[in-house]
Write a structure and sequence with these properties.
Blueprint lengths: L6 E4 L15 H13 L4 E5 L5 H13 L4 E7 L2 H11 L5 E8 L2 H8 L3 H16 L5 E6 L6 H14 L3 E6 L6 H14 L7 E6 L6 H10 L4 E4 L13 H10 L1 H4 L10 H12 L20 H9 L27 H10 L7 H17 L5 H15 L4 E11 L2 E11 L2 E8 L3 H13 L4 E9 L8 E9 L2 E9 L2 H18 L11
Parallel strand pairs: 1-2, 1-8, 2-3, 3-4, 4-5, 5-6, 6-7, 7-8
Antiparallel strand pairs: 9-10, 10-11, 12-13, 13-14
This protein binds 3-methyl-2-oxobutanoic acid and zinc ion (ZN).
The site of 3-methyl-2-oxobutanoic acid has 10 residues, from strand 5.
Length: 514
């Protein structure tokens, strides 16, 4: 099947969520799914329904809320996985079941402990079972990047005969090199007799930093679906970045001759949303969505851009959703202006209570910081979403003494299941003292794996946004907090991480043994 349309399949909510520390709540997933729908993503992989009851509910909620994009659930090539995916998707306006099995010699021998014939048989059975629920079935050959071409031809032909309309070729471990990967796609399309009955898709991981290059090479050789994630989030080094694929195909239309349905002006808002929710910051020099992606530092470049923009710019910042860092609201802005500006930024409130809480925080912030920028609003909303959830631990108040030549001391009062508990501790710095005081109350024993502070806007009155990564019993979470006082922001981030550790329950990994 050859078309001039490149299908964009977003897996931020499934493969993206497999990034250590990127787990999201159902509401957060819904917000991202709505942003993806607004961006006109063709297929949203909402999750792996059998992984846990939370994952099932998230896929179900997204299937019910999204009407413009196809909603997909991943399923191993097992009856129970496929039935669970179908159950979660049953109310979707347009649903897809994505089933997969590993096809490389190393995976078949060591992980599956199955013979190639058995793998083909199981793949065919899975596709047929999925077809009982929907006409829209995708089949993936896990670790196709290290699979033998003859075996790929054999299993793909059988999967298409069984009813798969999309065939996905994942480079699961990021091993491929662009020219070779493109050649693999071309060979498959030429050699498989029924290849014309399916759309060929690719799904590349970034272990060698080649996920986007490999995907584009596959597209140049006939792939018509790319699986990708916002900001390149994903297992290990991540997946191909949606924004880079979409803008490469659009900017080099002369080479690819393809279009996508994506509304590119939604790219930056979606990138920010994913970064805020997951706590994975976007590096400043990241293509398309990094803060410096359209900033010209050198005088020669600035002069050129002023004379004729295209001297140094191949894309327009506005086309991907950047707009000037304008002063948006201040101390005297009302609730309506607040709600309207947030809606423009893609934030809606589930209830008047949530809006009122966020507005009260906005007023507090405006008292401390007179100029409120879009970035401040994003941080503020994240903070109110974090703190309006049902949390075990809450920060009631704190004070820190930090003086030259004196050991810093922090006094913290937390509410634990509604009861106030106070503690104090010394530390090597104010943050260290505060974390020790919090641990005296909570006694979580969590390991602090990462601590980072970013100024949200410029100026010394900027809010600090703190991200902490905590690990406990093999579970990893990212906690976030923002405040004009970075020690308070640090305490909020740590407490948010502790609450997330309470809430995350063990779940099945899709690529575990079948
Ligand atoms: O990387 C991979 O192989 C996957 C499959 C499950 C599609 O994520
Ligand atoms: Zn993957």
């Amino acid at each position: 099947m050859s078309t001039n349309q490149l299908i964009i399949f977003d897996t931020t909510l499934r493969d993206g969520e497999q990034s250590p520390g990127a787990s999201m709540t159902r509401n957060e997933k819904l917000r991202i799914a709505k942003a993806l729908e607004k961006m006109k993503v063709d297929v949203i992989e909402a999750g792996f329904a059998i992984a846990s009851p939370d994952d099932f509910e998230a896929v179900k909620a997204i299937a019910e809320a999204v009407t413009e994009s196809t909603v997909c659930s991943l399923a191993r090539a097992l009856d129970k996985d496929i039935d669970r995916a179908a159950e979660a998707l049953k109310n979707a306006r347009s649903a897809r079941i994505h089933t997969f099995i590993a096809t490389s010699p190393i995976h078949m021998q060591y992980k599956l402990q199955m013979k190639p014939d058995q793998v083909v048989e199981q793949a065919v059975r899975a596709v047929k079972r999925a077809r009982q629920y929907t006409d829209n079935v995708e089949f993936s050959c896990e670790d196709a990047g290290r699979s033998e071409i003859d075996f790929l031809c054999r299993i793909i032909e059988a999967a298409i005969d069984a009813g798969a309309g999309t065939i996905n070729i994942p480079d699961t471990v990021g091993y491929a090199i662009p020219e070779q990967f493109g050649h693999t796609i071309k060979t498959l399309l030429e050699r498989i007799p029924n290849a014309h009955k399916a759309i060929f898709s690719v799904h590349c991981h970034n272990d060698l930093g080649l996920a986007v290059a490999n995907s584009l090479s596959a597209v140049a050789n006939g792939a018509r679906q790319v699986e990708c994630t916002i900001n390149g989030l994903g297992e290990r080094a991540g997946n191909a970045a949606l924004e880079e694929i979409v803008m490469a195909v659009r900017t080099r239309q002369d080479l690819f001759g393809l279009t996508s349905a994506i509304d590119t002006t939604q790219i930056v808002p979606a990138s920010r949303l994913v970064s805020t929710i997951t706590g994975f910051p976007v590096q400043p020099n990241k293509a398309i969505v990094g803060a410096n992606a359209f900033a010209h530092e050198s005088g020669i470049h600035q002069d050129g851009v002023i004379k004729h923009r295209e001297t140094y710019e191949i894309m327009r910042a506005q086309d991907v959703g950047w707009h000037n860092n304008s002063l948006v609201l201040g101390k005297h802005s009302g609730r309506n202006a607040f709600r309207t500006r947030l809606a423009e930024l893609g934030h809606t409130f589930e209830s008047e209570t949530q809006l009122n809480e966020a507005f009260a925080r906005f007023k507090e912030l405006a008292d401390k910081k007179h100029e409120i920028f879009d970035e401040d609003l994003h941080a503020l909303v994240t903070d109110s979403l974090i703190s309006s959830d049902n949390e075990k631990f809450k920060l009631v108040c704190m004070s820190v003494c930090s003086e030259t030549g004196v050991t810093p001391l922090s006094k913290v009062t937390l509410s634990v299941d509604g009861a106030e508990v106070a503690a104090e501790a010394e530390g090597s710095g104010p943050v260290d003292a505060t974390y020790k005081a919090i641990e005296q109350v909570v006694n979580s024993g969590a390991n602090l794996k990462l601590y980072s502070v970013n100024a949200i806007t410029s100026g010394t009155d900027s809010q600090g946004e703190v991200t902490v990564r905590l690990e406990s019993g093999g579970r990893i979470v990212n906690g976030l907090g923002s405040d004009t006082d970075i020690v308070i922001a640090s305490a909020k981030a740590y407490i948010n991480g502790l609450n997330l550790l309470q809430n995350t329950r063990g779940k099945q990994h899709p690529q575990s043994d079948v």
